[in-house]
Amino acid sequence: MSSNYMPIEELELYCRFCDKITPAQLNRSIAENGRTLSRNSTFEYYCTKCSKTMCFSGNDLAEQEQSGEEVTARVYSPSEHYFIGNLIQHKKFKKGVVVGKDNGTPSKILVNFEKSGLKKLIQDL
Ligand SMILES: [Zn+2]
Questions:
Q1: Does residue 50 sit in the same domain as residue 80?
Q2: Which domain holds residue 89?
C-alpha cells in the first residue's frame, strides 16, 4: 500500500439538505479509482440520511490515521487551519467537532459544540 493521503471514511457532517448533522461516508469508488491521492484531491461524501453528496478538498479533511485514536482537542484560534473531524476546545463554547467548512472570505469552520450547538468560527485569519 502506498503512502497516499486518505481522509477519514466516516464523518459527522452538517448536511444542508437535511439541515442537521448527519453521519456521512466517503465514496470509496471515486476515492480509489487509481488516481494518486493527495491533500489537493477532491473527495466525495454522501449523507447516510438523504444520500446527497458533498465534496471536500483533502486540505479540509482529517486524515484516516487520526480516526479511532485517542484525540486531544485543539485549542481554537482564528489564525489556525482546521480539518473536518477535528476536535476543538473553545474558551466560551467548550468542546466541539468540526462538521463543515465555509470557504468564503474569511474562511470559516462549522463546529458542533456539545453544549452550545452549531457555530461558525473563523479560520486561517
Ligand atoms: Zn442529508
A1: no
A2: 70-122
CA 110–ligand 1 middle distance (angstroms): 16
pTM of the model as a whole: 0.87
pLDDT, mean over the chain: 89
Res. 66: pLDDT tops 60: no
How is residue 67 written as a grid cell?
480516526
In this structure, are 77 and 45 located in the same domain? no
Q: Ligand 1 centre and the CA of 91: distance in Å?
A: 30
What single-letter amino acid sits at 49? Answer: K
Domain boundary among 60, 81, 102: 60
Confirm whether 1 is domain-assigned: no
What is the residue whose three cell numbers read 447516510? 48
Q: Which residues are close to ligand 1, an ion, with C-beta < 5 A? A: 15, 17-18, 47, 49-50
Distance CA 52, CA 37 (A): 23
Residue 53 has pLDDT above 70, yes or no: yes
Ligand 1 center to residue 122 CA distance, Å?
24
